Amino acid sequence: MSVGNVSGTTPYQAAQTTAEKSSTLDYDSFLKLLVAEMSHQDPLNPTDSTQYISQFASFSSVEQAIQTNKKLDSLMTVSALTQANSLIGRTATSADGSVTGTVEAVRVVEGGVQAVLGGGKTLMLESGTTVK
User: Fold this and answer.
1) String of DSSP letters for the chain
2) Contacts of 96 (CB under 8 A, 6+ apart)
3) What is the distance between the alpha carbons of residues 53 and 94, in angstroms, rounded to a whole number?
4) Among 1, 11, 117, 126, which is disulfide-ready with 36 (CB 3.0 to 4.6 Å)?
């Protein structure tokens, strides 16, 4: 049964497809799924409204935790970059000794902080890296 759509998919299927396309479920997708679920429920056996409220409260809590983690990640990145800034002008050597040079700049990349050495070489600042 398709109400008010041309493509032949139900609003529930469309919302579910949208949610599957993104790696995380945002508020809009959640609300679309909730509305689709409510509009397609069995009228003779409706879902209890407290279940909807419980689902929304759980989703809201998870969303707040995700936002808090993003802010903490941002603070950690700034802190790491500030600390790594003190390495400029010093000599850094990789744990295996294969890469060494004077640190000209530092940058934050996925996975941590990277030192840009003289000559364009780069070195991830990780366990075992020596700085003199």
Assistant:
1) --SS-SSS--HHHHHHHHHHHSSS--HHHHHHHHHHHHHTS-TTSPPPHHHHHHHHHHHHHHHHHHHHHHHHHHHHHHHHHHHHHTTTTSEEE-TTSS-EEEEEEEEEETTEEEEEEGGG-EEE--TT-EE-
2) 128
3) 53
4) 11
User: Which tokens belong to 112?
Assistant: 């941590």
Neighbours of 117 (CB within 10 A): 20
β-partners of residue 123 are: 115
Mean pLDDT lowest for which of 1-10, 40-49, 54-63, 81-90?
A: 1-10
Rounded percentage of the chain residues whose pLDDT exceeds 90: 1
Q: How do the residues of the chain divide into helix, strand and coil, expressed in percent and rounded to 5? A: 50, 20, 35
From CA 103, how far away is CA 89, in angstroms rounded?
5
pLDDT of amino acid 39:
80
pLDDT bin (cut points 50, 70, 90) of residue 111 is confident
